[in-house]
Write a structure and sequence with these properties.
With 295 residues, the protein is mostly beta strands. The protein has no helices and 31 strands.
Length: 295
């Protein structure tokens, strides 16, 4: 629980199969770790409610995750790794990943972010995605299905100019962010839940791709949840632009009771898997949205 700085250090062969086996365990505080090497540990770095700054670290040969974080996130930049069981910066783990009243920015790394279980944005917080960020959702093994939830007053934001500037996809998708975990097979619709924006939450996303999300949960007499579901007044002053919704389950985008949302320059493709009713790129119920240049 300190604000210490760790630089140019090496942490290796800590292999006990629990927290004691992590190369570096940080709890609380806001420390910084930079330019260090983590090799052959049970887990490279464990962050427990510690908004640490991790910069230019190399993590290899971990028996579990390269980085495993719970609670509000700090900053990650320039971190890389290989030959870990999960080559990823694992976030969520059924915790709130932003602090109320604060803005958290996720920058691109050599490793993707991996949402394990639910990652929730605190009320009145903002999560900003930088250019080149890859976010993957965990699949359903061991009830670890990844989901990103935006609470009332919270906001998701990105400012890319093309759909590949930010990618939300499945842990099984090795076409971006490399192979996150070996032996998983091919990605498919419903691999992970996707993004849920609750009433009062806001999206302002420009330049993103969302694929392989969605769930078989039903509402409105048989329609399944989409990969991006916006509920209630959540879309007020919201915006989705330069977007690609691809290969999601049931629907790419679901709007329910949304009062105002602008969707522009968006492509909806390959939504063929469904539950009780035909799949569709966009499903809207009792909502008001402005659509322009939709394919």
């Amino acid at each position: 629980n300190s604000n210490s700085a760790v630089t140019n250090s090496r942490f290796s062969t800590s292999s006990n199969a629990d927290m004691a086996g992590t190369g570096l365990y940080l709890s609380g505080g806001a420390p910084s770790v930079s330019g260090s090497v983590f090799n052959g540990n049970y887990r490279g770095i464990t962050l427990e409610n510690s908004p640490a700054a991790l910069t230019d670290n190399v993590i290899t040969g971990s028996a579990k995750e390269a980085v495993y974080a719970t609670g509000a996130l700090g900053t990650f930049s320039g971190n890389s790794g290989f030959s870990n069981f999960q080559n990823a910066l694992v976030i969520g783990n059924s915790t709130t990943i932003t602090a109320s009243g604060a803005t958290t920015t996720l920058a691109a790394n050599g490793l993707p972010y991996l949402i394990k279980r639910k990652a929730t944005l605190a009320e009145n917080s903002t999560l900003v995605f930088g250019a080149g960020v890859i976010v993957k959702g965990h699949d359903s093994r061991a009830n670890n299905t990844g989901a990103l939830e935006v609470k009332s007053g919270a906001k998701l934001s990105s400012s890319g100019s093309s759909s590949d500037a930010l990618v939300f996809t499945s842990i099984k998708d090795s076409t971006v962010g490399g192979e996150t975990e070996s032996g998983l097979g091919s990605p498919a619709a419903r691999d992970w839940i996707g993004i849920t924006v609750l009433s009062g939450g806001t999206v302002d996303l420009s330049g993103f791709t969302l694929r392989y999300g969605g769930t078989p949960v039903f509402f409105l007499g048989g329609e399944g949840e989409g990969a991006l579901k916006i509920t209630g007044g959540a879309g007020s002053s919201g915006r989705l632009a330069q977007a690609l919704f691809d290969k999601n389950y049931q629907s790419g985008l679901v709007l329910k009771d949304v009062t105002a949302l602008a969707v522009s320059n968006a492509v909806f493709s390959n939504h063929t898997e469904s539950s009780a009713s035909p799949a569709t790129g966009l499903f809207s119920s009792n909502s008001t949205a402005t659509l322009s240049n939709i394919t």
